[in-house]
Design goal:
CATH topology of the largest domain: f41 fragment of flagellin, N-terminal domain
Shape: rod-shaped
Distance between the termini: 26 Å
CATH class of the largest domain: Mainly Alpha
Radius of gyration: 40 Å
Number of helices: 6
Order of helices and strands: HHHEEHHH
Length: 278
């Protein structure tokens, strides 16, 4: 190799190697700082695109989970209210049976009828107040039930059906104005109370089954979210132990490269020796 003060090939080579080491060092430091092996499309466009698609699904599943959580809350409130209605019907049956006693005097029968009507009003109050976030599936305000998200594409749904527990309906057949003021009236109401108890308990069973379905699906969505999150991590997360070892190696290379460049820069000094006098 010729010696020149204009072009120093050794220094250029050393500088290229040092720049390459510095670039690698910056990349490793970025991976350590962010924890990501692929932080943007520049690192690996194909893998980054796949990871972004999965992140979008994870975000959508978060919305699905929120929808299912709301559904479970609505179902839980309805179950609690329905159980209260069932307990009130048990009390109601006691009053009706007592009113069927022909030995009751007028005052006792009037008091019994007053208690009966009071329990009917309590049933109405419970049903009217069984709403969560404005949704009530017991007062016939949403006869078609409510649909909730079931997947990330929002094209599948789980329906929480409505149960009409208002007085005089298909489930609780006693009208709000019904009475047990006479033995005959009490006898007629007795059949309605028995039927209403069966109907309410069946309605609660249906709501309970749907609530269990919602809970199971919410568990599946949570597990699916975890799996997708792990999958994204496998694609883009950095192996910090490996990057730490690589960082140390590059730091040594950087020091050696800097030293090599320094030596290469000193080479033209040899030319001065050729022009010194004897």
């Amino acid at each position: 190799m010729s010696i020149s003060v204009i072009t120093n090939g050794s220094a250029l080579t050393a500088l290229q190697n040092l720049n390459k080491t510095n670039d690698d060092l910056a990349m490793v430091q970025s991976r350590i700082n962010t924890g990501l092996r692929i932080a943007n499309a520049k690192d690996n466009a194909a893998v980054w695109s796949i990871a972004q698609g999965q992140r979008a699904d994870i975000g959508a599943l978060g919305a699905v989970k929120m929808s299912l959580d709301r559904a479970k809350s609505i179902a839980d409130v309805a179950m609690s209210a329905g159980e209260s209605v069932s307990d009130l019907l048990v009390q109601l049956k006691e009053k009706v049976v007592a009113a069927m006693d022909p030995s009751l005097d007028a005052a006792s029968r009037t008091a019994m009828n007053s208690d009966y009507k009071s329990i009917l009003r309590q049933i109405t109050q419970v049903v009217q107040n069984s709403a969560f976030d404005g949704a009530n599936i017991l007062d016939n305000s949403i006869p078609a039930g409510i649909k909730f998200l079931a997947n990330a594409d929002a094209n599948a749904f789980i329906t929480l059906s409505s149960k009409n527990l208002t007085l005089g309906g298909a489930v609780i057949t006693m009208a709000a104005a019904s009475s047990i003021g006479t033995v005959t009236l009490a006898t007629g109401v007795m059949a309605q109370v028995n039927a209403s108890l069966v109907n309410v308990n069946q309605a609660l069973g249906d709501i309970g089954s749907q609530s269990k379905q919602l809970q199971n699906h919410a568990t599946f969505v949570a597990k699916l979210t975890d799996v997708l999150t792990t999958g994204v991590g496998n694609l883009v997360d950095a192996d910090l132990a490996k990057e730490s070892a690589h960082l140390q190696a590059l730091q040594v290379q950087q020091q050696l490269g800097a030293q090599a460049l320094s030596i290469a820069n000193q080479a033209p000094q040899v030319i001065l020796q050729l022009f010194r006098g004897g």
